C-alpha cells in the first residue's frame, strides 16, 4: 500500500507540473492570440481611418507584448519579431496621424528669414479644417479622433507643444507687439481661415482692452474648431472631470503669453500721471474679463494668474515707472550743455507749478495754539522790516537745464501730494535721488570743461547755489501734504544744502587757483623788475603787466552778467590782488634801484593802477560799472599798499619820512619799518641825510 501511495503521489506531482506548464502555455498562446487580434483590428481600423480605435488596439498589443516579455525563464524568439512589428506599426500609425494633423491645421508662414517683422508676420495664416460632428460616428469628429489617438500613443504633448510655439511666434506675440495688426476670420465651406490685416495705428501701443479682444478671438477660434476635445474618450462617470486639450495647451504656453502681455502691453498702459490712476480700473476689469473668458474655454485653470496680479498692483508699478521716468529725465538734463543759460533775478518768477499752502495741513494745530494765547497780549512783531530781497538769490545766470531740473523736482513732489502713501514715499525719495545724482554725475561728466573754461565753472557755481537755495525750503513747502510717514520731519532736503554749496565753491575755487597760477606765471617773465634801465628788461616787465591785465579783462568779460555782482567783485579783486602782491614783493626785494629804474617802475605801477579798476565790469551796462570800479580798494586788499609803493618810488627822503609820520602815517599802515628802510637803502645813496631818514623810520 505504501508503495502504491508513493507512486500515486509521484504521478500526481508530475500531472500537476504538466498542468501548470500547459496552463502557462495556454496563457501565453492566449496573449499571442490577443496580440494578433489587436494587430488585425488595428489594421482594419486604420484602413477605415478610425484612428482612436487603431491607437487603442496598438496599445493593447503593446501591453500584451510587455506581459509576455515579463515572463522570466520563458523566452520566445518570436517576441523579438513581434516587438519589431509593433514598432513598425506604431511608426506607420504616427505617420498617418501626422498626415491627418497637417490637413486639420495648415500653417502658411512667411518665407523670409526675418519672420518677426511686421511685413513678414502679416502674411501668416492658419487654416483649420471644419468637419461637422455626426451622431452615428462613434469615434467623434476627425479632429477629436486624431488628437485622442496621439494622446493614446503618447505623442500628443510633442505635437501640441510644436503647435503652441508656432501659435505664439506667428499669431499671439505679433498681435501683442504690433498695434496695427488685426486678426481676420474667414469661414469657407470646409475650412476656417485665421489671417491678419494691417491698419495705420493711431497710437504706438494698443490699449490692453484691444489686445485682450484680439487674443480672445484667436482662442475662441481654436476652442471651436480644434481644441475643444477631451484628452481621453469620455466615459459616463467622468464627464465632469475630463481634461480638454485646450487646458493642455494653456499649461504649455500661458506663462510665455502672460509674460509677453505684461512686458509689451500692461507695462505701456501704466499711467504716467496719478490723476489717470482711477481710469486704470477699466484695465483691471478688462483683465479679469479676459481671464474669465479663457477659464470658460478651459485654457486657464481657476487660480489668479500673474497677469491679473500685475494689473491689480498698478499703484506699485505706477510709482516704479514714475520714479524711473523722473530719474531718466533728470539724468538727461544733467548731461546736457551747461552753457545754455537763463537769468535769475530776485524779482523773476521761476516757472514752477502752483505750490500747496504749507500751512493747509496744519490748520487745526494752529487753531489750538492760538487758543492758548491770551487776547490782551500785544504784538511782539518788530517794526523794522527786512528787505523783501533779504533771503532772495542774487541776480546771476544759471543753466536752463538746472532750472528745468528744479521744475521737475517741484512737479514730482506736487504729484506725490496726490498719490497713495507708498507712491508718495517713493516719489519723495526719487527727488532726493535726483539731487544726489546731480552731485555725483555733473562734476564727473563735465569735469574737463569745468577745469578748462572759467565761464562754465562760474555757471556751475551758480547752479549749485541755486539748487542749495531751493533745497532750504523745498521739504518745508510740501511737508504737510506728503504721506504721514514723511510728515514727522523726514521730508527734508536741508541736509543736502552744505554739500551743494561746497560743490559749487570747490569748483569755482579750483578755477581761481588756475587763474592765479597763470597770473604768477606771466609775472615770472618780468625778470624780477630789476635793472629797468635796460630796455630789454623793461619791455619784458611791461609785457608781463599787459598780459596780466589782458587776462583779467578777458575773465571780467567771461564772468560778466554770469556771477552775482558781489561774487564777481570778490573774485576779480582777489586775482588783481594776487598780481599786486607779486609786484610789490619783487620790487621790495630789490637791493639797488637807480633813479631811472624808479621812474620806469613807477610807470609800470601806474599802468596797473589806471588799468586795474577797468577789469571790474560785472554788468553789461558800462555806466553802472563805474560804482564798482571806484570801490576797488574794498575788493583789492593790497590796493593802498601798492599806491604807497608808487609814492615811495617818486618821493624824496623827507616826503617818505612825512608819510611814515613816526609810525602813524599812511605809509606805516601798509609797510613795516624794515620794508621801508630796505626801499630807502635801494633808492638812495648812503649819505648823512639817508642815515638821518633811516633813524626816523622805527
Describe this structure in words.
With 698 residues, the protein is mainly alpha-helical. Helices cover 66% and strands 5% of the residues. Among the domains are: 1-102, no CATH class; 109-131 and 141-234 and 241-298, no CATH class; 651-697, no CATH class. The strands form two sheets. It has a four-stranded antiparallel β-sheet. A two-stranded antiparallel ribbon has the order 5-6. A hairpin with a 3-residue loop joins β3 and β4 (191-198). The longest helix has 46 residues, at 2-47. Mean pLDDT is 81; it is low at 132-141, 234-241 and 358-379. One of its GO terms (cellular component) is RZZ complex. It is found in: Chromosome, Centromere, Kinetochore; Cytoplasm, Cytoskeleton, Spindle; Endoplasmic reticulum membrane.
Give a topology summary.
Layout: H1 2-47, H2 51-69, H3 77-104, E1 105-108, H4 118-121, E2 125-129, H5 142-153, H6 156-177, E3 181-187, E4 191-198, H7 208-227, H8 245-269, H9 281-296, H10 306-312, H11 314-334, E5 341-344, H12 363-372, E6 396-399, H13 400-417, H14 421-445, H15 447-452, H16 454-478, H17 484-487, H18 497-523, H19 535-559, H20 565-588, H21 595-611, H22 622-630, H23 632-635, H24 639-650, H25 653-660, H26 666-670, H27 673-683, H28 688-696
Helix pairs in contact: 1-2, 2-3, 2-5, 3-5, 6-7, 6-8, 7-8, 7-9, 8-10, 9-10, 11-13, 11-14, 13-14, 13-16, 16-18, 18-19, 18-20, 19-20, 19-21, 20-24, 21-24, 25-28
**What gap, in angstroms, lies between the N and C termini?**
165 Å
Strand order of the largest sheet: 1-2-4-3
Which spans of ≥5 residues are poorly predicted at pLDDT below 50?
Answer: 132-141, 234-241, 358-379
SSE-based structural type: mainly alpha
Approximate shape: elongated
Estimate what percentage of residues fall within beta strands. Answer: under 5%
Oligomer: single chain
Gyration radius over CA: 49 Å
**Helix percentage range:** 55-70%
In round numbers, the mean pLDDT is: 81
The main β sheet shows up as: 4 strands, antiparallel
Quantity of strands, as a count: 6
The helix tally amounts to 28
